[in-house]
Amino acid sequence: MPDLTLTAELGRPIGSRSSGRLRVAGKIPGVVYGHGNDPVPVAVDARALRAVLNTEAGMNALITLEMDGSTQLAMAKDVQRHPVRNTVTHIDFLAISRDEVITTDVPVTLVGEATELMRADGVVDHQLFNLTVNAKPGSIPNVIEIDISGLKLGDTIRVSDVALPDGVTTDADPEAAIVVGQGAQVTEADLVTEADAEAAAVAAAEDAGAEGAGEGGGDAAAAGGGEGGEAGGE
C-alpha cells in the first residue's frame, strides 16, 4: 500500500499540563527518534493519526511525516492509550529509511477450517499471535496467514513450517508452536461442576430416605394410637 502522510508540528511545549492542553485541542503529543538523533517532540492531529493507525498495515504502516518543510519516513513504534477510553494519549515514531532492515512484529492469523480436527472433537489451540520478523519497510507483510485446513488431532504447526515472503526473515525459535490440534480437555470448572452434581444427587437420595423413614414411623405411631384408643373404649 502507498505511504501515508501525516503532518507533525514541531516545537510543542513539554510537560503533562501542556500535553493535556494539546489533547483538549484535538492533538496528540509524540516524539520522533531513531538514526542516532535525539528525540524530537511533535504534535499530530488526533483524527489524522487515527486514520493512519486503522489501515490494514496497522502499526507497520509506512508514514511520511511532514515536519516544517522536511519529510521523514517513519513507523508508529509505541502507542500509549487511555486505560478506560482507549484513545491515544501519546505516540512514538521511529525514523526509518527504505533500504534498511528493521525488526517488527507481524500479526499471525488463522485461515481455513480444521474439519478433520473438529470431527475428532478436537480444538484449535492458537498459541503464537505475533511473529517478530526482519525486513526492509516495503517488504513487511500486513499479516502472516496460517492455513489450518489440514490440521489433525495432535498436529503442531511451528515457526519453521511458515513460508515467509521474499526478503523477510525471523529470528524466532523454529520449534516454537504457532497452532496445535488439541484434544478436548476437561477443565477444573468441569470437575467442580461434576463433583457438585454428584454431591447434590447423594444429598437428594439421603433426603428421600429420611422422608421415607419418617413416613413409616408416622404410620406405625398412628396405628398404635388407634389400637390404644379402641382398647380404652372397650
Tags for this model:
single chain; 234 residues; alpha+beta; 6-stranded mixed beta barrel; 3-stranded mixed beta sheet; 4 helices; flat; disordered C terminus
Short description:
The chain is of the alpha+beta class and 234 residues long.
Write the layout of secondary structure elements.
Blueprint: E1 4-10, H1 16-24, E2 27-34, E3 37-45, H2 46-53, E4 63-67, E5 70-81, E6 88-95, E7 102-111, H3 115-119, E8 123-126, E9 130-135, E10 144-147, E11 156-158, E12 177-182, H4 188-233
Parallel strand pairs: 1-4, 2-6, 7-10
Antiparallel strand pairs: 1-3, 2-3, 4-5, 5-6, 7-9, 8-12, 11-12
Notes on the structure:
There is one protein chain. The chain has 234 residues and is an alpha+beta fold. The protein is 29% helix and 35% strand. It is built from four helices and twelve strands. Strand 5 (70-81) and strand 6 form a beta hairpin. Mean pLDDT is 86; it is low at 220-234. The N and C termini lie far apart (111 Å). The strands form three sheets. It has a six-stranded mixed β-barrel with strand order 1-3-2-6-5-4.
